[in-house]
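Example record

The entry below shows one chain as it appears in the dataset: sequence first, then structure tokens.
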Amino acid sequence: MPSEDLSSWRDEFPVLERKAYLISASLGPVSRRSRRYLDHYVDAWAAKGAPDNVWFEDIFPTMRTLKQRFAALASCDPGELAITTNVSIALSTIASCVDFTKRRKVIMSELDFPTDGHVWLAQRPRGAEVVFLKSPDGLTIPLEEYERAIDDDTAVVMVNRVLYRSSALVDAKEVCRMARRAGAWSFVDDYHGIGIVPLDLHDLGCDFYTAGVLKWLCGGPGLAFLYARRDVLPGLEPAVTGWFATREPFSFDNQHLEYHPGARRLEHGTPPAPVYPLALGGLEIIGEVGVERIRERQGALTDHVIARADRAGLPIRTPRDRSARGGVVNVGVGPEAGKICHALLERDVCTDFRGDGLRISPHFFNTEDDVDRCFDELRALL
């Protein structure tokens, strides 16, 4: 059966009027809804003036709604979610809670996103030993590699549910189970899976999880969610913190630190309010379309990308099995991949590149015509 056509949503994203937008794995397009919500916030700011009115009538309610929307998407409780600005801060917050005098190892893979490695490597002065698992094929990390590496000296096991370069899916649930069995914390970075691969955080079984709205959630930069399993929350005392992490931030007591009892203890300073209405517009749309429908449609579109690459004789650096990949197809175009990517941008075809491959990432609103336009232009450049 052909996949459901979701292109009726195209009118919601103005950039699609001009461009073959195949770059949502780097930056999801801004929607008209997000723009309306941002305008509403700016209008409220301009009209109300007094900060208390804007914070308590506009910003804080939007933050609560964001947590509720994301909790519905991720099958968790809003009270298990903190809002922060990016994954690096989310990781650093949890890293500051780890006592490396008891267990030293942080297990991760060489295919995980770079910031994951950078944050944990920065913990070496505190005693961390970062172990990078090797990939046998440059695309995947076998579960056996995690099994061999995790031991009773392991503090944290880091896992990306979808690998950013190859888009290969990792059995994160099984990795979390291995970590739990060894008495280690598990931390899932899902920036490249959220919104396109169905998620149930309680079933996943991780201790911590983070993802942002920049990519598939079409929410723009500046907002990431940090989940902490309810059972571990009471024992977390992050050294990366701020006044919004306290039980009573508006007490203005600078001489005592009492963390909020819920996941808000993992938040930081004054929130970057303008990003919230943008993020809410994207989250609402993804929730209304539904991740299951997005997954099915995106699978058909990435199949079409692979078929066009095969016709062009270009190598694929992504699993061909639809069930084993996320939303990106990495197509090898040679050492001039950067120049080719920028030449496509000049032709209003948006992709990105890593190494010698183009990353082509169609979303639910794309069509086969967008993919064909990309490869027609690419043929003229190769």
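Notes for this example: The longest helix spans residues 51-74. The chain is about 35% helix and 15% strand.
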